[in-house]
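Private note to self, pasted from the team thread so I don't lose it. Backbone tokens:
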């Protein structure tokens, strides 16, 4: 028979057990909270990495594999835009959540036709500072080696397009044939033009000579004239203005088309809305503006893909008419099928 004494003892024991369990729970909770705090503290103490993923983007164009290679970025002030005011450029940038100085990508395009591996433009190499010069690294990250490149085509010979031709004093693409418009090489590789050029332009001539002349000396430079087909599926369209021999490359396979514009456009936030806005680096800004208007209109009408050198990586998209100007529509990220 259970007495009241026994009941009292049982209740006391139960209370002590509950108290002990509660204190154990408190200790466990304190340990857990301390662990979370320590974990968060460890995370906060880790150094920031501040690097991006390898800069390549791949898509299929018919039977052709197109790999965009990002060489890095270049910082440009609003004052670099011409045929406008700095204030207007800053307003256009602000409307697109940008400010001066703004970052311009430096993109190149690797085309695998199945028969040829063709690189269009080569980035800056070591000519334009520490935020660029990553093309070879990204080429390898994309699964290719420089010695596999069969041909290199230049849209023009500015240092951010031709500088990557050399690496460590050697040909960066030792097995490749180098090609560009003859008017381009006649202009930039001419010593007399260098000597009579203004001071701010001399580095452009010197960069072109340092990058291209080793290929000339090795018998690997073969200029072309005007509109021509270089390999099946890759057609040159002459677009002089930004430079005397500036070229567009039209890539086509199985009815799918992409035009690679080089420096036809530099700043999406500014020049699609107002194509007449030019840039200080234009050799002939009036012709450059005319080429841009023609290209915008044609791309908007025909609907083909466009690849650009300086719009935000990967610099591929479509152009659509919008009011009295145009709009840039970047590609949607996708995995090649």
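Design output:
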């Amino acid at each position: 028979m259970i007495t009241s004494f026994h009941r009292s003892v049982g209740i006391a024991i139960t209370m002590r057990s509950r108290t002990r369990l509660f204190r154990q729970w408190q200790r466990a909770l304190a340990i857990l909270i301390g662990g979370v705090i320590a974990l968060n503290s460890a995370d906060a103490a880790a150094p920031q990495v501040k690097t991006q993923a390898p800069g390549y983007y791949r898509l299929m164009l018919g039977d052709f594999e197109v790999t965009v290679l990002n060489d890095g970025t270049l910082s440009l002030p609003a004052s670099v835009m011409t045929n406008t005011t700095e204030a207007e450029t800053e307003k256009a940038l602000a409307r697109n959540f940008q400010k001066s100085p703004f970052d311009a990508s430096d993109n190149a395009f690797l085309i695998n036709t199945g028969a040829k591996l063709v690189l269009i433009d080569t980035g800056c190499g070591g000519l334009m500072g520490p935020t660029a010069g990553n093309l070879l690294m990204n080429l390898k990250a994309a699964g290719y080696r420089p010695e596999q490149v069969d041909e290199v085509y230049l849209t023009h010979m500015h240092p951010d397009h031709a500088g990557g031709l050399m690496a460590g004093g050697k040909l960066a693409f030792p097995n490749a044939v180098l090609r560009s418009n003859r008017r381009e090489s006649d202009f930039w590789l001419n010593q007399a033009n260098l000597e009579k050029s203004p001071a701010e332009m001399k580095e452009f001539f010197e960069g072109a000579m340092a990058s291209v002349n080793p290929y000339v000396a090795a018998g690997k430079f073969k200029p072309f004239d005007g509109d021509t087909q270089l390999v099946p599926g890759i057609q040159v369209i002459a677009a002089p203005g930004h430079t005397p021999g500036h070229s567009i490359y039209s890539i086509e396979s199985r009815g799918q088309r992409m035009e690679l514009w080089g420096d036809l456009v530099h700043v999406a936030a500014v020049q699609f809305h107002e194509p007449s806005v030019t840039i200080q680096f234009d050799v002939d800004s009036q012709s450059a503006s005319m080429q841009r208007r023609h290209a915008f209109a044609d791309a908007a009408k025909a609907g083909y893909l466009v690849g650009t050198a300086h719009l935000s990586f990967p610099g591929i998209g479509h152009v659509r008419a919008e009011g009295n100007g145009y709009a840039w529509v970047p590609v949607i990220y996708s995995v090649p099928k």
